[in-house]
Amino acid sequence: MRPAILLSIFFALMLATSLSADPSGNSTGTAADAMDGAGNTFIPPKPAAGDVAAQEAYDAFQKQAAAEPLAMKLADSVGQNRISLNLTWLLITGFLVMFMQAGFALVETGLCRAKNASHTIFMNFMIYVIGLAGFWICGFGIMFGAMPVASLGGTPGLSPEFEYTVQIMGKPFGLFAHNAFFLSGPNVYDVGVYSLFLFQMVFMDTAATIPTGAMAERWTLSSFYIFGFFMAMFLYPVFGNWAWGGGWLSQLGINFGLGHGYVDFAGSGVVHAVGGLCGLAGAIVIGPRRGKYNADGSVNPIPAHHVPMALLGALILAFGWFGFNPGSTLGVSGGGLNRVGIIAVTTMLAGAGGTLSATLFLLLKTHRPDPTMVANGMLAGLVAITAASGFVDAKTGFLIGAIAGILVCFSVDILDRIHIDDPVGAISVHGVGGLFGVLCVGIFSDGTANYGGSWNGVPGTVKGILYGDAGQLWAQLIGMGTLVVWAFGISLIFFLVLNKIVKIRVDEQAELDGLDIPETGVMGYPSFPSTD
Q1: Residues 136-155: what's their mean pLDDT?
Q2: I need a surface site. Which of 154, 195, 354, 460 has the fewest CB within 10 A?
Q3: pLDDT higher than threshold 50 for residue 171
Q4: Where residue 1 falls among pLDDT bands split at 50, 70, 90?
Q5: What is the pTM of this model?
Q6: What is the C-alpha to C-alpha distance for residues 146 and 196, in angstroms, rounded to an integer?
Q7: Number of domains within the chain
Q8: What's the CA gap between 161 and 173, in Å, rounded?
């Protein structure tokens, strides 16, 4: 009886049609959405009581609109075209980010040993669908259920009334939303909401993929499945709500005057640091691969089995980053959103800076450029620029990437010294690079990006300490501390508890022979021996 009751509840939630906003797309985008590049709307907003001048302007417009119905119809068309452009841009960039899953699969599989190829790439394949399902069930609702998006037609089903808040020091602290589970609820069946879901889901999936590299070659699939749902339904969405969904980190500016609150343009912290810190916790609990470290503390390098595959994957990831960063404008029309070209170029240059600095570092240290570490230098540069990509120029983007390329080399070495085994460098690329990227917003943001004249509800442009706003740096530091406590701390507890319930590490013989047969039943390379 109990399974039947659970199934009944599940299907009731799925079939709950609720009120629809605009599933046809016919009415998304009106004259109210028509605006110029700076964000000035065609229709003056209804003024506050007592504002005589604004009321006169509003009344004059209404009178003129009644006299010129054709002009209003044309304005409706302009508004819909603007929103349609934004929706199209969002979907195309979301498709690019989804393609990054192939890049991750190639990088991680190539950097692991041949005997674990099927297992590694299967985790990269499965995390996509597990993450998709979990984010659909409740992750999206927890993260964005209370966050309307004006550039997508207002997404009426996502309303601030659905944010659960607590009062601390007399200020509201948003903790999570409770709306849009299973993409259901009042006005959730809407073209804007669904488009936002697709874009944000592939971001979440990037974060969920990162630990598959950090814990590769010894992770049981049974515990991996549980982790995937935990990440998509709870760990990632909660922090995402605090940063992007209207939660307390985003409100540090409004509540405490700290710049514009925590700012993370495309997810150095929300996506990459969350994934990297989760991978760090998992790598600590699962322990190093057998034979990686000697009793005297020395390191035995475990070579990648397919370097060309790994570097091809890195190039695919770099291509997908054109969706990651430029797509985070959530549109291209009106309100300063057409800065996308600058964002794309700073992203490219950060990748180049990370590649070149890592190459130079390796040449000076070993006289040879390890291709796998050079690829990680590129990825670290791309990770680091992600948070600041919407607020800096070309030379700053290159500088940020170059610093990250050196940081990742030091980080990989330090992790080996303390015997934290990360087969692909995911912790260093995404965890260290992500935290550094969050910091860069508070240092390098130059105050030139408009985005409608405000960010997180604070008027004006985002500026780092080099451009006169020390409060922004403090907001970023608070965000970094929160990332460590939440993403690493909660993940560490999760893996420790999970290991008591479901064994997270394969047995010794399976690890020695390779995980392909015992875990997946299929060898990645059946035509030649793949054991050590």
Answers
A1: 96
A2: 460
A3: yes
A4: very low
A5: 0.94
A6: 13
A7: 1
A8: 13
